[in-house]
Amino acid sequence: MLELGVTLVDGKAVLITGCDKGFGHALAKQLHAQGFTVFAGCLLTGENGDGARELESMKSDRMKVLQLNVCSDQEVAQAVEFLKNNLKEPEKGLWGLVNNAGVSAFGEVEFTSIDKYKEVADVNLWGTVRVTKAFLPLVRRAKGRVVNITSMLGRMASPSRSSYCISKFGVSAFSDCLRQEMYRWGVRVILIEPSNFVAATGILTCESIEAQAEELWSGTSKTVQEDYGKSYFTRQITLMKSFINSGLKDMSLVLNDITDALTSKYPYTRYNPMEAHWRVRLTVITHLPTAVADWLYIY
Ligand SMILES: NC(=O)c1ccc[n+]([C@@H]2O[C@H](COP(=O)([O-])OP(=O)(O)OC[C@H]3O[C@@H](n4cnc5c(N)ncnc54)[C@H](OP(=O)(O)O)[C@@H]3O)[C@@H](O)[C@H]2O)c1
Q: Which PROSITE patterns match (predicted)?
């Protein structure tokens, strides 16, 4: 029986969303290696699901891969049934739910379409709310943990990231409300707020930035195009591309914090896997008067 901190892992099950690649995929393997039964929700299964196939190829009865688009009421309901039928002791509930599935987006407000705002929120925010509501009865039964992957951009705004920030600030508010409601049930609700790990996970790539740039430029009005100008826009895209190589390349800080959130007897409410300079910036922006923080970091 494996013991981490003071919470026993043995026999506990965790559902993770977005296990096709990135944090979710790596976390599924890490938690499995530590003795958890892992329900790995993947957006793509079958022929096109490379990530799902890789997890299935482990041929472990503690690694259970399931189809789970967090935007689909039907797939979420099917996932609940799948867990009820595959948990070893369903009456004891589900120990952990990790809401990890997410998409990234960028673009200044005047370039971002309403459809884009909705598309990002559909996965990051409403997907998290939908999945959480569906699995809470099982998590409550286990007096377990809900671990939501937000971002430092879920507490700190940034120019060109409004669609992403809105979705992650929303998850943050949702998690804080839920945490307060869940104290009396013995359920812990925990936020993971990573900085930039784009180079480690590939949530943004040069190709996806170029595709989004095309969408932003062609989707806005002539007035906005003329006022901002193509050269300014191109500079912003170049800046965005530089961002994909500037972050942490090793995702273990994030994976270890999620593991701690699931295994520590007294987990933190918020984990901040990030470099020191981002930690300073997050503290300054969330503690100093807004005008001072903007003067320091934005002007
Ligand atoms: N990487 C970072 O720098 C960073 C920083 C802060 C926070 N985060 C957050 O961490 C989480 C994981 O990101 P990541 O960097 O690991 O990104 P990633 O490598 O792109 O992984 C995201 C996963 O979510 C899946 N997904 C997308 N839409 C989905 C949907 N509708 N239903 C179910 N799954 C869906 C993706 O599936 P496909 O691969 O099939 O599209 C993929 O498996 C996200 O919530 C992200 O916002 C990331």
A: ADH_SHORT
Runs of H (alpha helix) within 187-289: 198-201, 206-219, 222-228, 230-243, 252-263, 276-287
Q: Which pLDDT band holds residue 10 (cuts at 50, 70, 90)? A: confident
Statement: the pTM of the whole predicted model exceeds 0.70 = yes
Q: Can you tell me which atom of ligand 1 is nearest the CA of 164?
A: 47
Question: What is the C-alpha separation between 92 and 89, in angstroms, rounded?
Answer: 6
pLDDT, tens only, 66-112: 999 999 999 999 999 999 999 999 999 999 999 999 999 999 999 99
**Ligand 1 center to 122 CA (angstroms):** 13
Tell me, what's the pLDDT at 4? 52
- Give 197 Cα–ligand 1 centroid separation in angstroms: 11
With the most atoms of ligand 1 within 8 angstroms of its CB, the residue from 17, 19, 23, 42 to mutate is 23
% helix, strand, coil for the chain, step of 5? 55, 10, 30
Question: Strand, coil or helix: what is 189?
Answer: strand
Each residue's pLDDT tens digit, 161-188 = 999 999 999 999 999 999 999 999 999 9
Domains of the chain: 3-201+250-294 (3.40.50.720)
Top mutation candidate among 68, 78, 104, 147 for ligand 1, by most atoms within 8 Å of CB? 104
Query: Looking at ligand 1, which atom is closest to the CA of residue 152?
Result: 6
